[in-house]
Specification:
The structure holds two protein chains of two kinds. Chain A is mainly β. Chain A has one helix and eleven strands. In chain A, the strands form two sheets. In chain A, strands 2, 3, 6, 8 and 10 form a five-stranded antiparallel sheet that branches. A five-stranded antiparallel sheet of chain A has the order 4-5-11-7-9, with no helix packed on it. The chains are: A mainly beta, B alpha+beta.
Protein backbone atom coordinates (compact mmCIF):
# COMPACT_ATOMS: atom_id res chain seq x y z
CA UNK A 1 0.00 0.00 0.00
CA UNK A 2 2.89 2.41 0.74
CA UNK A 3 4.13 2.03 -2.82
CA UNK A 4 0.66 2.83 -4.15
CA UNK A 5 0.37 5.89 -1.94
CA UNK A 6 3.74 7.07 -3.19
CA UNK A 7 2.63 6.49 -6.75
CA UNK A 8 -0.55 8.51 -6.21
CA UNK A 9 1.47 11.37 -4.80
CA UNK A 10 3.80 11.16 -7.79
CA UNK A 11 0.83 11.26 -10.18
CA UNK A 12 -0.58 14.37 -8.52
CA UNK A 13 2.84 16.06 -8.56
CA UNK A 14 3.25 15.07 -12.19
CA UNK A 15 -0.10 16.67 -13.09
CA UNK A 16 0.77 19.86 -11.23
CA UNK A 17 4.23 20.02 -12.81
CA UNK A 18 2.82 19.49 -16.27
CA UNK A 19 0.26 22.21 -15.69
CA UNK A 20 2.89 24.69 -14.54
CA UNK A 21 5.38 23.73 -17.24
CA UNK A 22 2.66 23.95 -19.85
CA UNK A 23 1.83 27.50 -18.80
CA UNK A 24 5.49 28.53 -18.95
CA UNK A 25 6.01 27.14 -22.42
CA UNK A 26 2.69 28.27 -23.83
CA UNK A 27 4.25 31.07 -25.84
CA UNK A 28 5.87 28.41 -28.02
CA UNK A 29 2.56 26.76 -28.78
CA UNK A 30 0.35 27.95 -31.56
CA UNK A 31 -2.71 29.53 -29.98
CA UNK A 32 -5.68 30.57 -32.04
CA UNK A 33 -7.20 33.96 -31.34
CA UNK A 34 -10.49 32.51 -30.17
CA UNK A 35 -11.63 30.89 -26.92
CA UNK A 36 -11.88 27.15 -26.33
CA UNK A 37 -15.19 25.36 -25.88
CA UNK A 38 -16.40 25.19 -22.30
CA UNK A 39 -19.39 23.25 -21.03
CA UNK A 40 -20.66 26.08 -18.79
CA UNK A 41 -20.17 28.89 -21.25
CA UNK A 42 -22.05 29.06 -24.53
CA UNK A 43 -23.55 31.99 -26.42
CA UNK A 44 -25.32 31.24 -29.68
CA UNK A 45 -27.04 33.14 -32.46
CA UNK A 46 -30.74 32.36 -32.38
CA UNK A 47 -32.46 34.55 -34.93
CA UNK A 48 -31.98 36.85 -37.89
CA UNK A 49 -34.75 39.44 -38.08
CA UNK A 50 -36.19 41.32 -41.02
CA UNK A 51 -33.33 42.64 -43.12
CA UNK A 52 -33.60 46.27 -44.20
CA UNK A 53 -31.69 47.28 -47.25
CA UNK A 54 -31.30 50.01 -49.81
CA UNK A 55 -29.46 49.67 -53.08
CA UNK A 56 -28.95 45.90 -52.63
CA UNK A 57 -30.23 43.24 -54.98
CA UNK A 58 -29.53 40.51 -52.44
CA UNK A 59 -28.91 40.47 -48.69
CA UNK A 60 -28.91 37.33 -46.57
CA UNK A 61 -27.58 36.21 -43.19
CA UNK A 62 -27.40 32.50 -42.38
CA UNK A 63 -26.73 31.08 -38.93
CA UNK A 64 -24.38 28.08 -39.02
CA UNK A 65 -25.51 24.65 -37.83
CA UNK A 66 -23.67 24.97 -34.54
CA UNK A 67 -25.18 28.47 -34.15
CA UNK A 68 -21.79 29.99 -33.41
CA UNK A 69 -21.21 31.74 -36.76
CA UNK A 70 -23.21 33.91 -39.16
CA UNK A 71 -22.49 34.07 -42.88
CA UNK A 72 -23.52 37.34 -44.47
CA UNK A 73 -23.96 37.65 -48.23
CA UNK A 74 -24.78 40.92 -49.99
CA UNK A 75 -25.08 42.05 -53.58
CA UNK A 76 -24.71 45.79 -53.32
CA UNK A 77 -24.81 48.38 -56.08
CA UNK A 78 -22.31 51.23 -56.20
CA UNK A 79 -25.00 53.81 -55.48
CA UNK A 80 -24.06 56.22 -52.74
CA UNK A 81 -25.87 55.33 -49.53
CA UNK A 82 -26.40 51.63 -50.32
CA UNK A 83 -26.59 49.49 -47.21
CA UNK A 84 -28.03 46.35 -45.67
CA UNK A 85 -29.03 46.17 -41.99
CA UNK A 86 -29.13 42.71 -40.39
CA UNK A 87 -30.89 42.54 -36.99
CA UNK A 88 -29.56 39.52 -35.10
CA UNK A 89 -30.42 37.99 -31.75
CA UNK A 90 -28.06 36.01 -29.59
CA UNK A 91 -28.66 34.13 -26.38
CA UNK A 92 -26.56 32.91 -23.47
CA UNK A 93 -27.45 29.21 -23.22
CA UNK A 94 -24.59 28.46 -20.85
CA UNK A 95 -24.74 28.12 -17.08
CA UNK A 96 -22.57 31.13 -16.16
CA UNK A 97 -22.67 34.81 -17.12
CA UNK A 98 -20.70 35.76 -20.22
CA UNK A 99 -19.24 38.92 -21.70
CA UNK A 100 -18.02 39.67 -25.19
CA UNK A 101 -14.28 39.38 -25.65
CA UNK A 102 -13.97 40.01 -29.37
CA UNK A 103 -15.83 40.09 -32.67
CA UNK A 104 -14.11 38.22 -35.50
CA UNK A 105 -14.85 39.04 -39.12
CA UNK A 106 -13.45 36.61 -41.64
CA UNK A 107 -13.34 37.37 -45.33
CA UNK A 108 -13.52 41.18 -45.22
CA UNK A 109 -9.90 42.06 -45.88
CA UNK A 110 -9.64 44.38 -48.91
CA UNK A 111 -13.40 44.82 -48.90
CA UNK A 112 -14.70 48.10 -50.23
CA UNK A 113 -17.51 47.68 -47.73
CA UNK A 114 -17.84 49.04 -44.24
CA UNK A 115 -19.19 46.73 -41.54
CA UNK A 116 -20.56 48.34 -38.38
CA UNK A 117 -22.19 46.91 -35.27
CA UNK A 118 -24.83 48.68 -33.22
CA UNK A 119 -26.27 47.45 -29.94
CA UNK A 120 -23.22 45.37 -29.06
CA UNK A 121 -19.59 45.93 -28.26
CA UNK A 122 -16.59 44.68 -26.31
CA UNK A 123 -17.52 46.04 -22.89
CA UNK A 124 -17.96 44.72 -19.36
CA UNK A 125 -21.66 44.25 -20.03
CA UNK A 126 -22.59 40.78 -18.82
CA UNK A 127 -25.09 38.48 -20.51
CA UNK A 128 -26.65 36.27 -17.84
CA UNK A 129 -27.71 32.65 -18.47
CA UNK A 130 -30.95 32.59 -20.45
CA UNK A 131 -30.69 36.26 -21.45
CA UNK A 132 -30.98 37.38 -25.05
CA UNK A 133 -29.44 40.38 -26.77
CA UNK A 134 -30.35 42.00 -30.07
CA UNK A 135 -27.89 43.88 -32.19
CA UNK A 136 -27.49 45.03 -35.78
CA UNK A 137 -24.82 44.41 -38.39
CA UNK A 138 -24.83 47.19 -40.96
CA UNK A 139 -23.01 46.60 -44.22
CA UNK A 140 -22.60 49.68 -46.38
CA UNK A 141 -20.55 50.82 -49.30
CA UNK A 142 -17.42 52.72 -48.44
CA UNK A 143 -17.93 56.12 -50.12
CA UNK A 144 -14.31 56.45 -51.18
CA UNK A 145 -14.01 53.25 -53.20
CA UNK A 146 -15.46 51.84 -56.36
CA UNK A 147 -16.18 48.14 -55.94
CA UNK A 148 -14.73 45.78 -58.57
CA UNK A 149 -17.58 43.35 -58.08
CA UNK A 150 -21.01 43.60 -56.56
CA UNK A 151 -21.33 40.37 -54.57
CA UNK A 152 -19.69 39.89 -51.16
CA UNK A 153 -19.65 37.17 -48.56
CA UNK A 154 -18.08 37.07 -45.14
CA UNK A 155 -18.76 35.59 -41.76
CA UNK A 156 -18.68 36.77 -38.19
CA UNK A 157 -18.35 34.97 -34.91
CA UNK A 158 -18.25 36.28 -31.39
CA UNK A 159 -15.86 35.20 -28.65
CA UNK A 160 -17.38 35.17 -25.20
CA UNK A 161 -15.61 34.70 -21.87
CA UNK A 162 -16.84 34.33 -18.33
CA UNK A 163 -18.51 37.49 -17.07
CA UNK B 1 -37.50 6.80 9.07
CA UNK B 2 -37.06 3.92 6.63
CA UNK B 3 -34.02 4.06 4.36
CA UNK B 4 -36.12 3.81 1.19
CA UNK B 5 -38.21 6.82 2.23
CA UNK B 6 -35.08 8.84 3.03
CA UNK B 7 -33.68 8.01 -0.42
CA UNK B 8 -36.92 8.97 -2.14
CA UNK B 9 -37.12 12.29 -0.28
CA UNK B 10 -33.51 13.01 -1.16
CA UNK B 11 -34.08 12.19 -4.84
CA UNK B 12 -37.04 14.57 -4.94
CA UNK B 13 -35.03 17.32 -3.25
CA UNK B 14 -32.22 16.87 -5.77
CA UNK B 15 -34.67 17.03 -8.68
CA UNK B 16 -36.22 20.15 -7.23
CA UNK B 17 -32.77 21.83 -7.23
CA UNK B 18 -33.39 22.67 -10.88
CA UNK B 19 -36.90 24.05 -10.28
CA UNK B 20 -35.73 27.65 -10.40
CA UNK B 21 -34.21 27.02 -13.84
CA UNK B 22 -37.24 25.11 -15.15
CA UNK B 23 -39.64 27.88 -14.03
CA UNK B 24 -37.22 30.53 -15.33
CA UNK B 25 -37.09 32.27 -11.96
CA UNK B 26 -33.30 32.02 -12.35
CA UNK B 27 -33.52 34.49 -15.24
CA UNK B 28 -34.92 37.12 -12.88
CA UNK B 29 -32.09 36.54 -10.41
CA UNK B 30 -29.46 37.09 -13.11
CA UNK B 31 -25.83 36.30 -12.28
CA UNK B 32 -26.60 35.91 -8.57
CA UNK B 33 -28.40 32.66 -9.38
CA UNK B 34 -25.25 31.04 -10.80
CA UNK B 35 -22.83 32.55 -8.27
CA UNK B 36 -24.89 32.61 -5.06
CA UNK B 37 -28.22 30.82 -5.13
CA UNK B 38 -27.19 27.58 -6.84
CA UNK B 39 -24.22 26.84 -4.53
CA UNK B 40 -26.47 27.63 -1.54
CA UNK B 41 -29.09 25.17 -2.82
CA UNK B 42 -26.48 22.42 -2.92
CA UNK B 43 -25.17 23.30 0.53
CA UNK B 44 -28.75 22.99 1.79
CA UNK B 45 -29.07 19.56 0.11
CA UNK B 46 -25.76 18.62 1.73
CA UNK B 47 -27.05 19.54 5.18
CA UNK B 48 -30.20 17.46 4.71
CA UNK B 49 -28.13 14.52 3.45
CA UNK B 50 -25.84 14.76 6.44
CA UNK B 51 -28.82 14.75 8.82
CA UNK B 52 -30.28 11.69 7.05
CA UNK B 53 -27.09 9.65 6.97
CA UNK B 54 -25.00 10.85 9.92
CA UNK B 55 -25.74 7.71 11.93
CA UNK B 56 -25.02 5.32 9.08
CA UNK B 57 -21.81 3.36 9.43
CA UNK B 58 -19.54 3.74 6.42
CA UNK B 59 -18.93 0.46 4.65
CA UNK B 60 -15.29 -0.50 4.88
CA UNK B 61 -14.62 -1.64 1.37
CA UNK B 62 -11.58 -3.81 0.96
CA UNK B 63 -10.94 -2.53 -2.59
CA UNK B 64 -11.14 1.15 -1.73
CA UNK B 65 -7.43 1.94 -2.05
CA UNK B 66 -6.94 -0.18 -5.16
CA UNK B 67 -9.91 1.39 -6.96
CA UNK B 68 -8.72 4.86 -5.93
CA UNK B 69 -5.34 4.06 -7.46
CA UNK B 70 -6.93 2.92 -10.73
CA UNK B 71 -9.13 6.03 -10.84
CA UNK B 72 -6.08 8.23 -10.23
CA UNK B 73 -4.32 6.64 -13.18
CA UNK B 74 -7.50 7.09 -15.27
CA UNK B 75 -7.57 10.78 -14.34
CA UNK B 76 -3.95 11.17 -15.38
CA UNK B 77 -4.56 9.39 -18.71
CA UNK B 78 -7.63 11.54 -19.39
CA UNK B 79 -5.62 14.64 -18.65
CA UNK B 80 -2.78 13.52 -20.94
CA UNK B 81 -5.14 12.60 -23.79
CA UNK B 82 -7.00 15.90 -23.45
CA UNK B 83 -3.82 17.97 -23.76
CA UNK B 84 -2.28 15.67 -26.37
CA UNK B 85 -5.26 16.45 -28.59
CA UNK B 86 -4.38 20.11 -28.17
CA UNK B 87 -1.15 19.50 -30.11
CA UNK B 88 -3.25 17.96 -32.89
CA UNK B 89 -6.19 20.35 -32.93
CA UNK B 90 -4.50 23.49 -31.59
CA UNK B 91 -4.99 25.59 -28.49
CA UNK B 92 -7.26 28.49 -27.71
CA UNK B 93 -7.70 30.99 -24.90
CA UNK B 94 -9.37 29.81 -21.72
CA UNK B 95 -12.89 31.25 -21.60
CA UNK B 96 -13.00 31.03 -17.80
CA UNK B 97 -11.81 33.89 -15.64
CA UNK B 98 -8.33 32.73 -14.62
CA UNK B 99 -7.63 35.60 -12.22
CA UNK B 100 -7.36 34.64 -8.55
CA UNK B 101 -10.85 36.02 -7.89
CA UNK B 102 -12.20 34.13 -10.91
CA UNK B 103 -10.68 30.83 -9.79
CA UNK B 104 -12.10 31.21 -6.28
CA UNK B 105 -15.53 32.12 -7.73
CA UNK B 106 -15.52 29.09 -10.00
CA UNK B 107 -14.44 26.80 -7.17
CA UNK B 108 -17.20 28.23 -4.98
CA UNK B 109 -19.70 27.37 -7.76
CA UNK B 110 -18.23 23.89 -8.39
CA UNK B 111 -17.28 22.51 -4.98
CA UNK B 112 -20.59 22.52 -3.08
CA UNK B 113 -22.39 20.84 -5.97
CA UNK B 114 -19.59 18.33 -6.59
CA UNK B 115 -19.02 17.31 -2.97
CA UNK B 116 -22.71 17.06 -2.10
CA UNK B 117 -23.56 15.14 -5.31
CA UNK B 118 -20.87 12.53 -4.71
CA UNK B 119 -21.68 12.30 -0.98
CA UNK B 120 -25.35 11.74 -1.75
CA UNK B 121 -24.51 9.31 -4.57
CA UNK B 122 -22.33 7.25 -2.21
CA UNK B 123 -24.98 6.98 0.49
CA UNK B 124 -27.75 6.32 -2.02
CA UNK B 125 -25.98 3.43 -3.73
CA UNK B 126 -24.84 1.86 -0.47
CA UNK B 127 -28.20 2.23 1.28
CA UNK B 128 -30.42 1.04 -1.53
CA UNK B 129 -31.84 -2.48 -1.90
CA UNK B 130 -28.70 -4.52 -2.61
CA UNK B 131 -30.70 -7.21 -4.44
CA UNK B 132 -31.53 -4.64 -7.12
CA UNK B 133 -28.27 -2.75 -6.97
CA UNK B 134 -27.85 -2.59 -10.77
CA UNK B 135 -31.28 -1.07 -11.29
CA UNK B 136 -30.72 1.37 -8.43
CA UNK B 137 -27.31 2.30 -9.82
CA UNK B 138 -28.93 3.12 -13.15
CA UNK B 139 -31.71 5.15 -11.51
CA UNK B 140 -29.24 7.12 -9.37
CA UNK B 141 -27.05 7.79 -12.42
CA UNK B 142 -30.09 8.84 -14.45
CA UNK B 143 -31.15 11.22 -11.67
CA UNK B 144 -27.79 12.96 -11.61
CA UNK B 145 -27.67 13.06 -15.42
CA UNK B 146 -31.02 14.89 -15.46
CA UNK B 147 -29.80 17.36 -12.88
CA UNK B 148 -26.71 18.12 -14.96
CA UNK B 149 -28.64 18.93 -18.14
CA UNK B 150 -28.58 22.53 -19.28
CA UNK B 151 -32.20 23.71 -19.03
CA UNK B 152 -31.44 26.89 -20.98
CA UNK B 153 -30.57 24.81 -24.05
CA UNK B 154 -33.69 22.68 -24.03
CA UNK B 155 -35.31 24.55 -26.91
CA UNK B 156 -32.17 24.09 -28.99
CA UNK B 157 -31.81 20.40 -28.06
CA UNK B 158 -35.07 19.42 -29.72
CA UNK B 159 -35.35 22.05 -32.46
CA UNK B 160 -34.37 19.66 -35.28
CA UNK B 161 -33.76 15.93 -35.56
CA UNK B 162 -30.03 16.64 -36.04
CA UNK B 163 -29.98 18.76 -32.88
CA UNK B 164 -31.75 15.99 -30.96
CA UNK B 165 -29.25 13.40 -32.16
CA UNK B 166 -26.40 15.72 -31.21
CA UNK B 167 -27.96 16.19 -27.78
CA UNK B 168 -28.26 12.44 -27.25
CA UNK B 169 -24.80 11.55 -28.58
CA UNK B 170 -22.79 14.54 -27.38
CA UNK B 171 -24.50 15.48 -24.14
CA UNK B 172 -26.85 12.90 -22.70
CA UNK B 173 -24.97 9.64 -23.31
CA UNK B 174 -21.52 10.92 -22.23
CA UNK B 175 -23.11 12.39 -19.09
CA UNK B 176 -24.94 9.14 -18.35
CA UNK B 177 -21.81 7.06 -18.89
CA UNK B 178 -19.81 9.33 -16.56
CA UNK B 179 -22.52 9.16 -13.89
CA UNK B 180 -22.72 5.36 -14.16
CA UNK B 181 -18.97 5.22 -13.73
CA UNK B 182 -19.04 7.58 -10.72
CA UNK B 183 -21.82 5.51 -9.12
CA UNK B 184 -19.77 2.36 -9.67
CA UNK B 185 -16.68 4.03 -8.19
CA UNK B 186 -18.67 5.32 -5.21
CA UNK B 187 -19.98 1.82 -4.54
CA UNK B 188 -16.51 0.32 -4.34
CA UNK B 189 -14.32 3.19 -3.23
CA UNK B 190 -16.36 5.93 -1.59
CA UNK B 191 -17.22 9.48 -2.58
CA UNK B 192 -13.67 10.80 -2.14
CA UNK B 193 -12.56 8.84 -5.21
CA UNK B 194 -15.36 10.12 -7.43
CA UNK B 195 -14.70 13.69 -6.24
CA UNK B 196 -11.03 13.24 -7.18
CA UNK B 197 -11.95 12.08 -10.70
CA UNK B 198 -14.06 15.18 -11.41
CA UNK B 199 -12.24 17.80 -9.37
CA UNK B 200 -8.64 17.46 -10.54
CA UNK B 201 -9.21 17.94 -14.31
CA UNK B 202 -11.78 20.69 -13.71
CA UNK B 203 -9.43 22.51 -11.34
CA UNK B 204 -6.70 22.47 -13.96
CA UNK B 205 -9.15 23.80 -16.58
CA UNK B 206 -10.03 26.70 -14.29
CA UNK B 207 -6.40 27.62 -13.78
CA UNK B 208 -4.62 27.30 -17.14
CA UNK B 209 -4.49 30.33 -19.46
CA UNK B 210 -4.93 28.26 -22.63
CA UNK B 211 -6.80 25.04 -23.33
CA UNK B 212 -6.95 22.51 -26.17
CA UNK B 213 -9.31 23.74 -28.88
CA UNK B 214 -11.40 20.59 -29.06
CA UNK B 215 -14.89 20.45 -30.50
CA UNK B 216 -17.80 18.95 -28.58
CA UNK B 217 -17.90 15.77 -30.65
CA UNK B 218 -14.31 14.90 -29.77
CA UNK B 219 -14.80 15.83 -26.13
CA UNK B 220 -17.89 13.60 -25.97
CA UNK B 221 -15.87 10.67 -27.26
CA UNK B 222 -13.12 11.20 -24.68
CA UNK B 223 -15.64 11.76 -21.88
CA UNK B 224 -17.42 8.52 -22.76
CA UNK B 225 -14.44 6.32 -23.58
CA UNK B 226 -12.28 7.15 -20.55
CA UNK B 227 -14.74 6.13 -17.82
CA UNK B 228 -15.91 3.17 -19.89
CA UNK B 229 -12.46 1.63 -20.22
CA UNK B 230 -11.63 2.47 -16.63
CA UNK B 231 -14.77 0.63 -15.52
CA UNK B 232 -13.74 -2.42 -17.57
CA UNK B 233 -10.37 -2.54 -15.85
CA UNK B 234 -11.79 -1.97 -12.34
CA UNK B 235 -14.38 -4.70 -12.92
CA UNK B 236 -11.69 -7.08 -14.16
CA UNK B 237 -9.48 -6.27 -11.17
CA UNK B 238 -12.23 -6.75 -8.58
CA UNK B 239 -13.36 -10.03 -10.10
CA UNK B 240 -9.81 -11.27 -10.12
CA UNK B 241 -9.15 -10.27 -6.52
CA UNK B 242 -12.45 -11.46 -5.10
CA UNK B 243 -11.47 -14.84 -3.75
CA UNK B 244 -14.87 -15.48 -2.21
CA UNK B 245 -16.28 -16.34 -5.65
CA UNK B 246 -15.86 -19.97 -6.63
CA UNK B 247 -14.13 -20.85 -9.88
CA UNK B 248 -17.38 -21.22 -11.84
CA UNK B 249 -18.63 -17.80 -10.84
CA UNK B 250 -15.43 -15.91 -11.51
CA UNK B 251 -16.04 -13.73 -14.50
CA UNK B 252 -12.76 -14.36 -16.19
CA UNK B 253 -11.94 -11.69 -18.66
CA UNK B 254 -9.15 -12.28 -21.07
CA UNK B 255 -7.22 -9.17 -20.16
CA UNK B 256 -4.95 -9.28 -23.20
CA UNK B 257 -8.04 -9.52 -25.38
CA UNK B 258 -9.57 -6.46 -23.67
CA UNK B 259 -6.32 -4.55 -24.01
CA UNK B 260 -6.16 -5.35 -27.71
CA UNK B 261 -9.77 -4.29 -28.16
CA UNK B 262 -9.19 -1.03 -26.28
CA UNK B 263 -6.10 -0.29 -28.37
CA UNK B 264 -7.99 -0.98 -31.63
CA UNK B 265 -10.93 1.22 -30.61
CA UNK B 266 -8.62 4.07 -29.58
CA UNK B 267 -6.74 3.78 -32.87
CA UNK B 268 -10.00 3.76 -34.86
CA UNK B 269 -11.29 6.81 -33.01
CA UNK B 270 -8.03 8.67 -33.53
CA UNK B 271 -8.05 7.71 -37.21
CA UNK B 272 -11.61 8.95 -37.62
CA UNK B 273 -10.73 12.21 -35.86
CA UNK B 274 -7.84 12.78 -38.25
CA UNK B 275 -5.05 12.41 -35.72
CA UNK B 276 -2.82 10.47 -38.08
CA UNK B 277 -1.46 11.73 -41.38
CA UNK B 278 -3.98 9.46 -43.13
CA UNK B 279 -7.56 10.68 -42.81
CA UNK B 280 -10.86 9.26 -44.06
CA UNK B 281 -13.48 11.24 -46.01
CA UNK B 282 -16.91 10.15 -47.28
CA UNK B 283 -17.70 11.11 -50.87
CA UNK B 284 -21.12 12.71 -51.34
CA UNK B 285 -21.30 13.09 -55.14
CA UNK B 286 -20.36 11.36 -58.39
CA UNK B 287 -18.21 14.20 -59.73
CA UNK B 288 -15.16 11.89 -59.78
CA UNK B 289 -16.91 8.86 -61.32
CA UNK B 290 -16.02 6.23 -62.38
CA UNK B 291 -12.85 6.15 -60.27
CA UNK B 292 -14.43 7.49 -57.07
CA UNK B 293 -18.16 7.11 -56.55
CA UNK B 294 -20.70 8.55 -54.17
CA UNK B 295 -20.66 6.53 -50.94
CA UNK B 296 -16.97 5.63 -51.19
CA UNK B 297 -14.52 6.48 -48.44
CA UNK B 298 -11.27 7.99 -49.67
CA UNK B 299 -8.10 7.96 -47.58
CA UNK B 300 -6.33 11.30 -47.66
CA UNK B 301 -2.64 11.67 -46.90
CA UNK B 302 -1.03 14.88 -45.68
CA UNK B 303 1.51 15.51 -48.42
CA UNK B 304 3.54 18.68 -48.71
CA UNK B 305 1.92 21.04 -51.23
CA UNK B 306 5.19 21.23 -53.17
CA UNK B 307 4.92 17.51 -53.96
CA UNK B 308 1.49 17.73 -55.57
CA UNK B 309 1.67 16.85 -59.28
CA UNK B 310 -0.68 17.23 -62.21
CA UNK B 311 -3.26 14.42 -62.30
CA UNK B 312 -3.13 13.93 -58.52
CA UNK B 313 -6.52 13.82 -56.87
CA UNK B 314 -6.50 16.34 -54.06
CA UNK B 315 -8.83 17.38 -51.28
CA UNK B 316 -9.43 21.08 -50.79
CA UNK B 317 -11.48 23.17 -48.41
CA UNK B 318 -14.54 25.10 -49.40
CA UNK B 319 -16.81 26.86 -46.96
CA UNK B 320 -18.18 24.17 -44.67
CA UNK B 321 -17.16 21.13 -46.72
CA UNK B 322 -14.33 19.50 -48.66
CA UNK B 323 -14.04 18.81 -52.40
CA UNK B 324 -12.09 15.92 -53.92
CA UNK B 325 -11.12 16.66 -57.55
CA UNK B 326 -8.21 16.06 -59.90
CA UNK B 327 -5.45 18.62 -60.52
CA UNK B 328 -5.32 19.59 -64.24
CA UNK B 329 -2.93 22.53 -63.97
CA UNK B 330 -0.53 23.97 -61.41
CA UNK B 331 0.71 27.55 -61.37
CA UNK B 332 2.04 30.08 -58.89
CA UNK B 333 0.66 33.43 -57.78
CA UNK B 334 2.65 36.62 -57.25
CA UNK B 335 3.52 35.54 -53.70
CA UNK B 336 5.08 32.29 -54.93
CA UNK B 337 2.23 30.17 -53.56
CA UNK B 338 0.84 27.26 -55.53
CA UNK B 339 -2.48 27.63 -57.29
CA UNK B 340 -4.28 24.54 -58.59
CA UNK B 341 -6.86 24.28 -61.36
CA UNK B 342 -9.02 21.27 -60.59
CA UNK B 343 -11.74 19.31 -62.31
CA UNK B 344 -14.01 16.41 -61.44
CA UNK B 345 -13.41 13.47 -63.81
CA UNK B 346 -17.16 13.28 -64.43
CA UNK B 347 -17.61 17.03 -64.99
CA UNK B 348 -17.41 18.65 -68.42
CA UNK B 349 -15.72 21.77 -67.14
CA UNK B 350 -13.01 22.73 -64.70
CA UNK B 351 -13.93 24.14 -61.30
CA UNK B 352 -14.52 27.87 -61.69
CA UNK B 353 -12.43 29.07 -58.79
CA UNK B 354 -8.74 28.14 -58.68
CA UNK B 355 -7.70 26.37 -55.51
CA UNK B 356 -5.34 28.40 -53.35
CA UNK B 357 -2.49 26.81 -51.44
CA UNK B 358 -4.25 27.60 -48.17
CA UNK B 359 -7.25 25.54 -49.27
CA UNK B 360 -5.20 22.45 -50.12
CA UNK B 361 -5.79 19.62 -47.63
CA UNK B 362 -4.05 16.46 -48.80
CA UNK B 363 -3.88 13.93 -51.61
CA UNK B 364 -6.18 10.95 -52.11
CA UNK B 365 -4.17 7.76 -51.77
CA UNK B 366 -6.85 5.13 -52.25
CA UNK B 367 -10.57 4.66 -51.95
CA UNK B 368 -12.76 2.06 -50.30
CA UNK B 369 -16.02 1.44 -52.18
CA UNK B 370 -19.46 1.75 -50.53
CA UNK B 371 -18.17 2.03 -46.94
CA UNK B 372 -19.37 5.61 -46.58
CA UNK B 373 -23.03 4.89 -47.38
CA UNK B 374 -24.14 4.56 -43.72
CA UNK B 375 -22.83 8.10 -43.13
CA UNK B 376 -24.66 9.45 -46.19
CA UNK B 377 -27.88 7.70 -45.17
CA UNK B 378 -27.60 9.10 -41.64
CA UNK B 379 -27.02 12.58 -43.05
CA UNK B 380 -30.12 12.21 -45.21
CA UNK B 381 -32.24 11.04 -42.27
CA UNK B 382 -31.07 13.99 -40.24
CA UNK B 383 -31.83 16.41 -43.09
CA UNK B 384 -28.35 17.89 -43.07
CA UNK B 385 -28.74 18.50 -46.85
CA UNK B 386 -25.12 17.62 -47.38
CA UNK B 387 -25.73 17.07 -51.10
CA UNK B 388 -27.16 20.57 -51.49
CA UNK B 389 -24.07 22.06 -49.90
CA UNK B 390 -21.72 20.44 -52.34
CA UNK B 391 -21.98 22.96 -55.16
CA UNK B 392 -18.60 23.56 -56.69
CA UNK B 393 -18.92 26.16 -59.39
CA UNK B 394 -17.83 24.94 -62.76
CA UNK B 395 -15.91 27.04 -65.27
CA UNK B 396 -14.85 26.58 -68.82
CA UNK B 397 -11.64 25.03 -70.06
CA UNK B 398 -9.78 27.73 -71.89
Amino acid sequence: MKKQSLFIVLIVLCIITMAVGYSIFRTNIEVSGKTAEAKDLEVIFTNVGEIKQEGCTYAKAIISENKKKITISVEISNQKGSFANFPITLKNVGLIPAKLRSIRQIGTSNFPLEVRYTGIGVTDLVLNPGDEQEFNVIVSLNDNTIPDKDSYKFYIDFDYIQG
Amino acid sequence: MKKSIKLLILALIILSSIILEVTKVSLILGSSYAYVVKPMIWIFIGIISFVFFKNDKLINNKYKKDVFFIVSVTTLLYFLLYFFLGYIKGFANNPYDTSFKGIITNLWVLLPMLIVKEYVRYYMINNCNQKKVLLNAFLISFLFTLVELNIYKFDAYFSTSLATLEFVMQTFIPSLITNLYLTYVCYFAGYQTSIFYILIPQLIIYVLPILPDIDWATLSIINSATPFFSYIYINYYINKMDKTLNRKEVKTVDFKGWLSMIAIVILMVCFGLGVFSYKPLVIASNSMAPKILKGDIVIIKDVDVGNVKKCDVIRYKMEGYYVVHRVVMISENNDGEKVFITKGDNNDNIDLYPVKQSQYAGIVKFDIPYLGYPTLILNKLLHTNVEDKVSVDKGRIE
